[in-house]
Amino acid sequence: MPRAAKDNALLAMADALVAHTDDVLAANAEDVARGRESGLSEALIDRLSLDAKRVAAMADGLRQVAGLPDPVGEVIRGSTLPNGLQLKQVRVPLGVVGIIYEARPNVTVDAAGLCLKSGNAVLLRGSSSARSSNAALVDILAEAGEKAGLPTETVQLVPGTDHESAKHLMRARGYVDVLIPRGGAGLIRSVVEESTVPVIETGVGNCHVYVDAGADLDMAVDITLNAKTHRPSVCNAAETLLVHRDVAPTFLPRVLAALRDAGVTVHGDEQVQAAGGADVVPVTDDDWAAEYLSLDIAAGVVDSVEDAVAHIRRWGSGHTEAIVTSSLAASQAFVMGCDSAAVMVNASTRFTDGEQFGFGAEIGISTQKLHARGPMGLPELTSTTWIVIGDGHIRG
Asked: What sections of the chain are H helices per DSSP?
């Protein structure tokens, strides 16, 4: 489909979402009530819950995607060989994209919009905890898309709510071109291990903030608080704070007080416990490895930027790491040492996000190293084709 047709469909979907906000919220209320009855954690309830503002944000995400350049047909590179053959490598859709995800209804809309814009059909397999919300959203999107001229069944919700339904999608090799899991470590591991369909692995977010000896301590407090408390239930929230020994005596009392006032439980090493007293819980290896997704943070003191990098490479998940420093040498050592999808210098980990990067809504944040890494926007939902133009060329 040409770009104009896809963009018109996206705008129609956005308008339909806003027009049917009450229907979406009614369906979501069913999911939230069912989730509370079944004992879902507050972190998952937060991810599951919608309000009018979040529905409007999903619609705005579709409008942003409509305003982005169409990646399909973009020439990546090209040349003319000495024998006269003309080469062009161009972007083409992946084909049929399956998304398996947990209790985040916004993924339904983000995935549909990005897959549509990049020329793909999308099969959505959300969690049973969000089944009412997802069904309502897909009905609205599909109807609006068809009225705007999309092919029937461009956007589909995979039927079923048990593991067998997801397993069937994972084994649909030859019908589904790629699977993208979005959710916790258990879901991602299950899809990677069980799928015969190629998988783009989105990762767990055990993100770190390192406060260097040369840090502006006011900035460091602000960045730490934002990274941890702005929205603790998402994958780019900070889960570990590392502090250089030289600034620990001054910085720790300040940041621990700020975290305490924000309701954060700190799991600290001996030095952090000494600075925070009874407010600090002793840290364990499980804490260093944890993606809390809650108002908890692990904290420790390190001797150097190299020690901070070593800690991150041992315990981190390769998602996002941040350094707060005024030292160019320290920032360079940190950036070069951290093998992660995103590395921030004097900025919060919360910026690892497709919308914040200017991609519009994102399909996920990849922590693997093949094809796509970091926030995945439209280009990451395409493959390439080589177009070779000759004039009767034959190979000798």
From this structure: 3-19, 21-37, 42-48, 52-66, 105-117, 131-147, 163-170, 185-194, 217-229, 248-261, 270-276, 285-289, 305-315, 328-337
